[in-house]
């Protein structure tokens, strides 16, 4: 996956009161966070706003790292651009199979073992995806702090939920004021943005 090599452009969105839960679903598309190779999942998650140890243990029930279901928070991040997906408990047998420490874990499709022994601590970019209640619970903190996201992900988000553009009260794109209707036409596909979203008081 591509990673941002230049400073992301700033994109600040002020949205209507009460609409943040709808905007937090943008976190499903994936945001980019910097980490160090060899950091464990627990160490990485503990640095995220609002991700207390209790929340990580009790609320995050399904973890995928590079497409593989993970049970152990001591698992190190692997690869130059690892993809990490987090979810609360999912319904049905599929949810039971992929849930952390599940009795049904033996039913998972096995993947080739990856060597996690290295600890060179070089900078890497983690593509983090948050689903269902994890996005709703932690979205406000993450989006208020600011996240790095690719323009194509934002365009996808607004193209599938166009009414949300009507809830944009103000748009500041790298110092330039835009309207909600202008926003999608101003985003350059291969550009990364430092996105902040806040509700109006």
- Number of distinct helices: 7
Please estimate the helix content: 25-40%
Cross-sheet strand order for the largest sheet: 7-10-1-8-9
What is the averaged pLDDT score? Answer: 85
Gyration radius from CA atoms, angstroms: 18 Å
Find the structural class using helix and strand composition: alpha+beta
Termini gap: 38 Å
**Major β-sheet annotation:** 5 strands, mixed
Number of domains: 1
Stretches where pLDDT is under 50 for at least 5 consecutive residues are 91-99, 102-112
Shape, principal axes of CA atoms: globular
Kindly state the number of beta strands: 10
Query: H/E series, N to C?
Result: EHEHHEEEHEHEHEEHE
What distinguishing features does this structure have?
alpha+beta; 5-stranded mixed β-sheet; 201 residues
What's this, in brief?
The chain is α+β, with helices and mostly antiparallel strands and 201 residues long. Helix content is 27%, strand content 26%. The radius of gyration is 18 Å and the shape is globular.
Describe the protein's architecture and organization.
- This protein is an alpha+beta fold.
- It has one domain (9-199).
- The chain is built from seven helices and ten strands.
- The protein has helices at residues 20-23, 41-46, 53-59, 92-98, 132-145, 151-160, 180-186; strands spanning 9-15, 31-36, 62-65, 68-69, 83-87, 123-130, 147-150, 168-173, 176-178, 192-199.
- The strands form two sheets. The chain has a five-stranded mixed sheet. Strands 2-6-5-3-4 form a five-stranded mixed sheet.
- The longest helix is centred in the last third of the chain and has 14 residues, at 132-145.
- The model is unreliable at 91-99 and 102-112 (pLDDT under 50).
């Amino acid at each position: 996956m591509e990673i941002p090599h230049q400073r992301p452009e700033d994109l600040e969105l002020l949205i209507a009161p009460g609409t943040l839960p709808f905007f937090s679903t943008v976190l499903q598309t994936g945001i980019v966070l910097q980490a160090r190779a060899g950091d464990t999942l627990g160490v990485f998650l503990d640095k995220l706003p609002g991700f207390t140890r209790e929340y990580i243990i009790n609320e995050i029930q399904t973890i995928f790292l590079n497409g593989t279901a993970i049970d152990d928070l001591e698992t190190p991040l692997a690869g130059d651009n690892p993809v990490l997906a987090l979810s609360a408990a999912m319904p049905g047998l599929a949810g039971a199979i992929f849930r952390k420490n599940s009795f049904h874990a033996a039913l998972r499709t096995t993947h080739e073992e990856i060597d996690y022994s290295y600890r060179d601590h070089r900078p890497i970019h983690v593509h983090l995806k948050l689903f269902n209640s994890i996005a709703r619970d932690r979205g406000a903190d993450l989006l208020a702090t600011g996240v790095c996201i690719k323009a194509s992900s934002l365009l996808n988000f607004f193209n599938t939920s166009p009414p949300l553009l009507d809830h944009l009260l103000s748009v500041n794109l790298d110092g330039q004021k835009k309207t909600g209707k202008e926003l999608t036409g101003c985003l350059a596909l291969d550009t990364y943005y430092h996105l902040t979203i806040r509700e109006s008081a």
